[in-house]
């Protein structure tokens, strides 16, 4: 099966990201503040949320606190991974703290982009629906139902 979704059927991304990533001029530190939340209440839970940030090369380390999930920062590859899981609307997941930079180097010219992966069970965000399935040459009667799953492709937030 193959299908194409036209640009007229575009659906809004179901999560939003509030971000504040800043590097001070002539200072070996910076600030990192990111909050993720559900954009609209579709009746479905956004789950398996993972936020990945490729930090600039001048970043030495990050000292962060979070309200939900777990995070890791690899000082060699400069990659921050935040595994959020499911979003609870009562308390939005937040990751914030300080960034340690190399001394004596210029601050990064641009902020990093945020890559987000997520899943939504029993939902087709494309709007695609299966009305009928015909099977020929089978002796058994198939189970009637369709299992929908939305997975994020390349979803990127530029800061």
From TrEMBL:
Pfam family, any one: Adap_comp_sub
SUPFAM superfamilies, per database record: Second domain of Mu2 adaptin subunit (ap50) of ap2 adaptor
Top-rank lineage group of the source organism: Eukaryota
Domain MHD: 1-158
UniProt cross-references to InterPro entries, sorted A to Z: Adaptor_comp_med_subunit, AP2_Mu_C_sf, MHD
Entries under PANTHER family matching the protein: AP COMPLEX SUBUNIT MU
Official protein name in the record: MHD domain-containing protein
Organism: Hymenochirus boettgeri
């Amino acid at each position: 099966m193959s299908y194409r979704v036209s640009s007229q059927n575009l659906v809004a991304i179901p999560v939003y990201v509030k971000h504040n990533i800043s590097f001070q001029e002539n200072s070996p530190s910076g600030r990192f503040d990111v909050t993720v939340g559900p954009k609209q209440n579709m009746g479905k839970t956004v789950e398996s949320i993972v936020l990945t940030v490729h930090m600039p090369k001048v970043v030495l380390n990050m000292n962060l606190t979070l309200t939900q999930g777990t995070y890791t920062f690899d000082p060699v590859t400069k990659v921050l991974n935040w595994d959020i899981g499911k979003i609870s609307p009562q308390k939005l997941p937040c990751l914030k703290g300080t960034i340690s930079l190399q001394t004596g180097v210029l601050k990064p010219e641009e902020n990093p982009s945020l890559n987000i992966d997520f899943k939504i069970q029993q939902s087709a965000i494309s709007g695609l629906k299966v009305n009928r399935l015909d099977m020929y040459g089978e002796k058994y009667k198939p189970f009637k139902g369709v299992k929908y799953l939305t997975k994020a492709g390349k979803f990127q937030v530029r800061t």
